[in-house]
Amino acid sequence: MNHKPVEGFSKLTKQGKIDWLVNEYLEGNEEYQNILNQYWNENTDLQKLHDEFSENTISNFYMPYGIAPNFLIDGKLFALPMAVEESSVVAAASKAAKFWIDKGGFKTTIINNEKLGHTHFIFNVEAHKLLHFFNFKLKKKLLEATEDITANMRKRGGGILDIKLVDKTSEMANYYQLKASFDTVDSMGANFINSCLEQFGKTLKQEVAVCEDFSQEEKNSLQIVMNILSNFTPDCIVRAEVSCKIEDLKDDSGISNEEFAWKFKQAVTIAEIEPFRATTHNKGIMNGVDAVVIATGNDFRATEACAHAYAARNGKYSSLTHCTIDNGIFRFWIDLPISVGVVGGLTNLHPLVKFSLALLGKPSAQELMSILAVSGLAQNFGALRSLVTTGIQKGHMKMHLFNILNQFNATEEEKQYFVTYFKDKTVSHHEVIVELEKLRNK
């Protein structure tokens, strides 16, 4: 099948884009036109708002928006909004929240909230000469040049925290960085940070050009490669934890409290030392984190990238959560690097994001960091609890049962039949099909 490239696609109307796609790629099938149209919002103003969130929009892609209640976090009770398509995520989080609610709940600590960005540049100059120039001339100029950009942020208590010169010439010829740390208060701060960094690049070039310490040959060698924030924020980190006496670790799976605690700790230790397990372990954590990140209008791609980079910070990919058993006390915690905002972006535009933030009591960025870390910890606790007791498939496949049945257009009566049928069995795709055929052939 050969298709023709299109010119000016972004300039077409929404219907024009759809017509071109359906005719060029889908043989003019009207069914696909109807699929796109049925997800448009009937409120034209609201639909226009959604259309303008992105580029070349032709419809809305819905995700289930669920609630995980009963989260006791730092003495306050929360119901967490979760935008996620995997039903077991919300169920596991809710179950974990209920488990810990009468054991003191979740405790959190903001360890740091610094965000980072870099001006990456190439400069063929002796490192000591550049360091002297940075310390005695450039750093002050960089701060002065960004005063207008940082004025509002400084009024809110944030701004540029520090700027350092980083010598990377041992890894790449003539490569240096201006590494800046920022406090962006309640905003994620991407635009703010990037604006500051772009000004750094301009100021660096200007100041080198007029500095008498460098030869003309050295000045000509300066190349600003890029100015960009880093989504790796190891100094913007929150800790969430739970703890209780082992004797209070009551579990309905039939194993003793002591065995449960021991097996749970072994499972975490395996994830700490085995990257194959750690990858799935941390994916489960991010199931919980991302669901709340999306519901609150934040960037889950940045969240994912940062968490996984942090998990590999020591040269080997490892667990984000940790567990100890000391003097009869079970303790389970996560240190999560995460950068989020509660102002800017979609937070003031998307109606469901507004709802989510209102539901959470209009948290500050730091409070939202705490909530996200708790969501990840709860999700991981729920997954490990199943893994070391009944196994993951029993609960997971029961949650997946309706998805299987919906593929075969099951009626409500058929769905209720299967809920009863699998009450004491493990759901499997094959058995659902076989039993459904028997049921329909009666």
Automatic annotation (TrEMBL):
Pfam families for the chain: HMG-CoA_red
Reaction catalysis annotation: (R)-mevalonate + 2 NAD(+) + CoA = (3S)-3-hydroxy-3-methylglutaryl-CoA + 2 NADH + 2 H(+)
UniProt cross-references to InterPro entries, sorted A to Z: HMG_CoA_Rdtase, HMG_CoA_Rdtase_bac-typ, HMG_CoA_Rdtase_cat_sf, HMG_CoA_Rdtase_NAD(P)-bd_sf, HMG_CoA_Rdtase_sub-bd_dom_sf
Keywords: NAD, Oxidoreductase
Coiled-coil annotated residue ranges, if any: none
EC number: 1.1.1.88
Pathway: Metabolic intermediate metabolism; (R)-mevalonate degradation; (S)-3-hydroxy-3-methylglutaryl-CoA from (R)-mevalonate: step 1/1
CDD domains, per database record: HMG-CoA_reductase_classII
Record family assignment: Belongs to the HMG-CoA reductase family.
Name of the protein described by the UniProt record: 3-hydroxy-3-methylglutaryl coenzyme A reductase
Source organism of this protein record: Chryseobacterium taihuense
Lineage of the organism: Bacteria, Pseudomonadati, Bacteroidota, Flavobacteriia, Flavobacteriales
